[in-house]
Amino acid sequence: MLSKPIPLWIYAGGAALAALAGSVNAFGFLSVHHQALTHMSGTFTLIGIGLAQGDRAALQHALLVLLFFFLGCVVSGLIIRQSTLRAGRRYGFALSCEAGLLFGAGYLFRHHSFAGAYLATMACGLQNAMATSYSGAVIRTTHITGIVTDLGIAVGLAARRERVDWRRMRLYGILLAGFFTGGALGALGFSRWSHDTILIPAAGAAIIGVSYTIFKHAERQRQQTPPTRPLP
After folding, report:
1. How many CB atoms lie within 10 A of CB 147?
2. Residue pair 197/103 in contact by the 8 Å Cβ criterion
3. Domain ranges, ordered by start, for the chain
4. Which of 123, 131, 133, 136 is the most buried (most CB within 10 A)?
């Protein structure tokens, strides 16, 4: 069970980040390599297939996707340095780095270099490692396997009339809805703008990162300002 209530900023931020990841993942499926970019289960399978079939090009691509996702996680660990989600940690800077990677991916795709997929998957690795838990709830914003599993367990427990942590399930439901919405919007964008669609989640990550940084700076200034005493 959650040890404390979930603040609104986690609901809103989680939904927004899940939507960004959903759009990038749709882009990955519709792009030249037709594979997921936001999680590595399928990529590991492709590595095995490449080895079994002796397809060196496919094997090299899958290994690079895995490597860049891993590097994104490393960068996140260097920036945030903690696995527990807390307001005030360097999420604004991490999101700015994610935006830069996605803009870089867009630049490479525009110049007909499909190596942009590696920068996009690095951005997803960075985002996925930014927040791992809050008050006992595991938070992932770039894949939904665990979310669907936990929701299914909750339904089974409810059917047995056992206690269910509905606050946690509400959070997971919002993340699921965000990922789905982002995927749909990403597919619509790709049908209209092709590879330039990656610039939309890039701009979204930049806006979220800058907004969060401004908000935390204003909050810090407010906390440092001494309270005014009433006139006698």
Report:
1. 22
2. no
3. 8-214
4. 123
